[in-house]
Design goal:
The complex is a heterodimer of chains A (226) and B (261).
Chain A (H helix, E strand, L loop, with lengths): L2 H5 E6 L2 E6 L4 H14 L1 H4 L3 E5 L7 H13 L3 E6 L3 H9 L11 H12 L3 E4 L8 E4 L2 E5 L7 E4 L3 E7 L2 E4 L9 E6 L3 E4 L2 E3 L11 E6 L2 E6 L5
Parallel strand pairs in A: 2-3, 3-4, 5-7, 6-8, 7-9, 8-10, 9-11, 10-12
Antiparallel strand pairs in A: 1-2, 11-14, 12-13, 14-15
Chain B lengths: L3 E6 L7 H14 L4 E5 L7 H4 L10 H5 L5 H4 L1 E2 L6 E4 L12 H12 L4 E5 L6 H8 L3 E6 L3 H16 L6 E7 L1 H6 L5 H8 L3 E6 L2 H9 L10 H13 L7 H12 L4
Parallel strand pairs in B: 1-5, 1-6, 2-4, 2-5, 6-7, 7-8
Antiparallel strand pairs in B: 3-4
Helix pairs in contact in B: 1-11, 5-6
Classes of the chains: A alpha/beta (226), B alpha/beta (261).
């Protein structure tokens, strides 16, 4: 067994292959993976690959380069699992899935506790169509949320901009979660188990806050005076 | 020479990418630039038809990449202009015949040959799209004033930004001022409001575009049509000139007259 094989662990799952990467510099991990593939090209060709990168922090350039190397070998990278929110975000930007069904029940179970805490995901840019953000805590967006974009948060969602996509606050059942935005016109708004669509807007645009009141979703203008 | 590589893409099909590449290519070449247009739509090639060069194809993009010919051999010279060339797509292959790294290599080689490389991207956001943007220095996102096209453009802008290609610029095609005035069509401002990127050009709806495409003679070649002028303006903006947006001015004037804004 060479040292390289210790860095990567490959196993078959229902959706294809799951490759778990060990702790090492990214360049070594990538080289080890490509080596392993080039040793058995026939086994890997045409495979659907999910990659568990552990706590590695990956940026678009690295992940895109790896995807490219894999695609040259006839391997389709479809998911990247990570403990790092940066890497998850990167994967989402590249249109890759960030979870595979039923492999991480512990992550799903721990989510509500995190949502009840004070952690928030800070996004300093506009979310365009196709962007999907999932976070167990609160989500703050400095920018717009365009139609076709989606935010699923365990806690509340604050948008300093126009909210026109789909948002789900309190996704794990937290009924006290709120959604607020400078312009609140989501395609669809969900808090905990309730769903609403934006009514036809009348009057001028103003900041609004949506919350659950006695099980009914209500949106009201944000007031400076109580 | 060090060419600038510009890719025209859109997400949605049928918004006018191919027509734009042909016309911007003609407009730049008419300004004395050496231009190579590359058809990135392998398997569904169209640019050669719109440019009227279909019957002169011997070698194509895939032949260059697979080494069956030299780059110069695949460059078809459009004789109506001194320095306009086309590298057609292969019709008998598909997108998987080319990889993004092949396109980067091709673009690097072309950079030495000319002033501008214009790449016509296929519709969609899959392999062909990634190929088309791989070697680009600048990306133009094209859209029509329709919700579905704008939505797709928004998605594509997000993907381009995620690939760290910088923020693309926008060309709004087929704007019908009469319909905007009646409130039946998204206005330039509506589109910019959502996409929030730099506007490179607005091309009005014009029947003569279709006629010209069918004849294989891009309308920027001679016509004084509004759409032709818009493409000339886009070319001048690409060359760094400040050109006012005629269509926008007209639209704003109407809004003032109608007492909106």
């Amino acid at each position: 067994m060479s040292k390289a094989t210790l860095l990567i662990d490959i196993k078959g799952i229902r959706d294809g292959l799951l490759v778990k990467l060990g702790e090492a510099p990214w360049a070594d991990l990538q080289a080890a993976l490509i080596n392993a593939i080039d040793e058995r090209p026939a086994f890997f060709k045409g495979a659907r690959l999910a990659l568990d990168v552990g706590s590695q922090v990956l940026h678009v350039a690295e992940l895109a380069a790896l995807r490219e190397l894999l695609s040259e070998r006839g391997i389709f990278l479809w998911a990247v699992l990570s403990e790092s929110s940066v890497s998850e975000q990167t994967a989402q930007n590249l249109g890759l899935a960030t979870r595979i069904s039923k492999t991480r029940p512990e992550a799903a179970r721990s989510a509500p506790q995190a949502g009840a805490g004070e952690t928030a995901l800070w996004l300093a840019h506009t979310l365009r169509s196709g962007a999907r953000v999932e976070f167990p805590g609160h989500v703050v967006v400095m920018g717009d949320v365009n139609p076709g974009a989606e935010i699923v948060a365990g806690g509340s969602i604050v948008v300093w901009g126009r909210l026109r996509g789909v948002v789900h606050a309190g996704a794990q059942g937290e009924a006290g979660a709120v959604v607020c935005a400078l312009e609140l016109s989501p395609t669809q708004l969900r808090i905990a188990g309730e769903i609403a669509v934006s009514p036809k807007r009348k009057g001028k645009i103003q900041p609004e806050i949506a919350r659950l009141q006695d099980g009914v979703l209500v949106a009201e203008p944000w007031q400076t005076k109580e | 020479m060090t060419a600038k590589v510009v890719t025209v893409t859109s997400g949605k099909g049928g918004v006018g990418k191919t027509t734009a590449v042909a016309n911007i290519g003609v407009a730049l070449a008419a300004k004395g630039q050496k231009v190579v247009c590359v058809d990135g739509d392998i398997g569904l090639r169209n640019l050669d038809v719109v440019m009227g060069l279909e019957n002169r194809i011997v070698y194509d993009l895939v032949d260059v990449i697979e080494g069956r010919c030299r780059l110069r051999q695949a460059m078809i010279h459009d004789k109506r202009l001194p320095e306009l060339y086309l590298i057609p797509a292969a019709q008998t292959r598909d997108k998987s015949a080319v990889s993004p790294s092949d396109m980067v290599r091709l673009c690097d080689e072309l950079r030495l040959e000319c002033d501008w490389v214009l790449i016509d991207s296929p519709a969609g956001i899959e392999r062909g799209f990634h190929n088309a943007i791989a070697g680009a220095d600048k990306i133009i996102v094209m859209t029509n004033p329709e919700i579905s096209a704008v939505r797709d453009a928004d998605r594509v802008i997000g993907l381009v930004e995620a690939e760290e290609k910088g923020t693309p610029e926008l060309v709004l095609n087929r704007l019908n001022l009469a319909m905007v005035r009646r409130g039946d069509m998204l206005s330039v401002d509506d589109v910019l409001d959502l996409l929030a990127i730099k506007l490179l050009g607005v091309v009005p709806e014009d029947e003569s575009v279709i006629v010209a495409s069918n004849r294989g003679a891009p309308l920027t070649l001679d016509s004084k049509s509004k759409a032709g002028q818009a493409f000339h303006h886009i070319a001048r903006r690409l060359l760094g000139e400040e050109v006012p947006f005629l269509e926008l001015e007209a639209q704003r004037l109407w809004q003032r007259l109608l007492g909106r804004k």
